[in-house]
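hi support,

uploading two proteins for the ticket. first:
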Amino acid sequence: MKKLYFTTLSVLIIIMSVLNIAIPDSVSIFNDQTVKESFADYPYITASTTNGQTITASLFGVIPIKKVNLETYPRLKLCPGGNAFGIKFFTDGVLVIGLSDVKNTQGNISPSKAAGIEVGDIIKEYNGNKIENAEMLIKAIEASNGETINFSISRNGESITLKITPVLSLETNTYKAGLWVRDSTAGIGTVTFIDKETNIFAGLGHGICDVDTGVLMPLGKAAVVDVDITGISKGVVNNPGELKGSFSNIREGFLTANTDVGVFGLFDSQPEQLHEAIPIALKNEIKTGKAYIYCTLDGNNVDKFEIEILKLNKNKQDSKNMLIKVTDERLLAATGGIVQGMSGSPIVQDGKLIGAVTHVLINDPTKGYAIFIENMINELWEN
């Protein structure tokens, strides 16, 4: 009898462990749906909530298995994009991308390293003065005459103050701090969706990060301009391709946020090519199999291409929620798969907007990752 008891208990523990892994950490429903509908794929699970934010998932309503976060959404309709756009991006402060030694009478020293500055730091102010660009910082250091400068720095979201004492360079006869910084970047991306009523848009599906450090670049200001796609560098194994294009000098809008799950902004007016608004789909509606992406490969013409969703990861909250594969022969012939510049390309399945392309696999350009549309919408609401 005792042996049977322990066997039953062991089996129950295994079942609960398996269910704990299988049940997602969060579920999403529309605000006209019930909590029960969010667990339609788990008929043996009873879902209940007392606060509207957390669900208790129980086996047959008796044995609690795990707490699950609950997200609710209105039934939105958004216009899928696919339009290529250019970004002229200027940082808020300057981003430290490297530290170096300065040759002076005492040898080779790095004032910045000695002060505790690190690659990835964002220098916002010097002696209480806001830093607008790299040139402004360089001039402040050169004009210091070797006196200590107070730097206000943002590091991993925290504000700190560091004191740096520039030294006179024997090579240039000017004061140096041994700093390499960046204050701007530019590139091509793809619009994911547009709100027809407000002209608010989202794109990329991931943030604009510094090419050297990988740090999310702090947004100071960024103009959005039209881009004319003039060529394509095809992707091959270990060498991602890219869309090539020419930027217009006319501003079409601006960015309001640069986040880990995409960029957000406002168009000055509605784009000429605007698709009809379609419903969004939440992650529990998305399935593996056929879907479509919209992107621009020539000029300003948005086209539709078939892909396959290979795998879903409903627990990940970043920009790699879906593994996708390009199956459309036209797209494969033109690009080799997913290339740089296609980030943000909207994904449509069963007539609903479900997500956006975010990354290409270096070892197989026909495959890549995509983000759930609800993750981008969540971030948009927060900004």
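and the second one:
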Amino acid sequence: KKMEELSTISSQGWRNFTQNKAICCCTSLTCLVFTGVWLTFLIYLGVYAYNNPDKDVWLGHMKVEGDKAVTMQLFPTKEALDAANGTSSVHMHERLVAWFSWGFYTFVLPFALIPVVICSFIMNPVVGFICQAVVSCACSCSIIAWFITGILWRWSTDGQFAVGTLVPSGKTEEEWMELTKADDSLYQVKSGNFMYYYYLLVLILNCSFCGCACMVACCFGCANIKFSSSSD
């Protein structure tokens, strides 16, 4: 009986959802936008992972003469950094490329493993469920770790300096923008902008999905209320 009630509520909720053209169109449009954005994002991840438009660069910390302060500076090679007596060297370009590559494989591999999961289900349902759980858990953990790592690498002090958003003392924002956009600039501006807009889009899409989820929940909630009233 409970299964019949649940089926009735689900059918009524789906009917409410499909009959409300505004909610239906809004949800469908959100799903289409999400799919398009996701595919575009995946393509750009591959481009930035294997053909990154920014130049190879090392970041080093330099001591200021006659002062205890330390400044950051970018170098085209590790040898140039060592020759300038830089410390705390970080291969910033490789770090950002590693983040793009990590994300690309994290999003692509689950689709590549679908045949393996299907075959395991055919062989043995229990093994199939175990494989599905392992793949889902591994991908979820990888996405969370990748997402958090990107925030730390992009918005750390080193990251902000490398992508050109941290204006050093003694320079105006206009001078700094001209310097970062120069043809011979070593700043990872394009990679930094890509990461910035990615996290911004994630925020916007999450808010959109929350709104759609609330509207769908309202449809099914109304169906539940109507069903309860008719049962009484």
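thanks. also noticed: The longest strand covers residues 58-63.
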